[in-house]
Amino acid sequence: MSAVLCRWRVAKVFWKLRAVMADRKITNKALAEELGMNPVSISKLKNNEQLPEIGGEALGNICLAITKLSSKDCTPEDLIEYIPD
């Protein structure tokens, strides 16, 4: 969980890759192969509750890979949850 300061309030940002992968039955190995990464790297990325420091291109590539592997559209909104205070 990340905290975003917004005028005396704290908002929460959650990274939901683990839940999305579980819901769509995507393994670390399958996603790693699709992205050209090591399954251990996917495991580390997946186990974050906080939004990892990744760029827009990487986020887009993760979404495209999940869409391809699950035949169900994936958007950044599926992977990131913002909860205002």
From TrEMBL:
Q: InterPro entries given for it?
A: Cro/C1-type_HTH, Lambda_DNA-bd_dom_sf
A single MF term (Gene Ontology): DNA binding
A Pfam family it matches: HTH_26
Q: What is this protein called?
A: HTH cro/C1-type domain-containing protein
Task: Write down the species.
Answer: Hyella patelloides LEGE 07179
Every copy of the HTH cro/C1-type domain together lies at 16-85
